[in-house]
Amino acid sequence: MALARASTLFAALTLSACTQVPKARFGLITGLAVTETRHIRYVVGTHYGFRIDYHDIGRVMKLREQFELPGPANFRSKSPPEQFMLASHDRRTWIREVQMGSHTPSPPEIHSFFIEDIKIARGDPKGKYTVRLWLDDRPFKDFEFYIE
């Protein structure tokens, strides 16, 4: 009986921990939805990027984004500018840090998300791009994709 209760408690804690781990998806952005793909057609105005789903546990997290580009680009992000902590770029690298989360934990049934929504601009280079993401200065997720 005690073993069954311990197993049930362990399973509940495991499921709870799984829902706490942020998940990232990359692809075409339509509103709040992401259609996962690694090949994006070069059409001016096309929205692409990533979405991170997470549970706000009551602490601020720092997300660092680093885009490696095949050439100079005209990045147009739709993310709110007040979330920027650092923004820098050169001709082939674009880096930004964003604050996610808050100082107040959310109830278990409420989940949060962050979307990086970028538009293809006239003159953006075609080719291979890489997005590297860090959460709280730890490697989190890398995406390689092609604008063709």
Model description:
By secondary structure, the chain is mainly β. The chain has one domain (43-147): Immunoglobulin-like (Sandwich). Helix content is 13%, strand content 48%. It contains one helix and ten strands, in the order H-E-E-E-E-E-E-E-E-E-E. The strands form two sheets. The protein has a six-stranded mixed beta sheet with strand order 3-10-9-5-7-6, with no helix packed on it. Strands 2-1-4-8 form a four-stranded antiparallel beta sheet, with no helix packed on it. Strand 6 (84-89) and strand 7 (93-100) form a beta hairpin. The longest helix has 19 residues, at 2-20. The protein is globular. The N and C termini lie far apart (60 Å). Residues 1-19 have low confidence and may be disordered.
CATH class: Mainly Beta
Strands in their spatial order, largest beta sheet: 3-10-9-5-7-6
Q: Report the sheet-strand fraction.
A: over 45%
Mean pLDDT: 83
CATH architecture: Sandwich
Envelope shape: globular
Calculate Rg over CA atoms. 18 Å
The total domain count is 1
Helix content: 10-25%
How would you classify the helix and strand content by structural class? mainly beta
Task: Predict the CATH topology.
Answer: Immunoglobulin-like
What is the helix/strand order? HEEEEEEEEEE
Sequence stretches where pLDDT stays below 50 over 5 or more residues: 1-19
SS element count, helices: 1
Terminal CA distance reads: 60 Å
Count of individual beta strands: 10
- Quaternary state, please? single chain
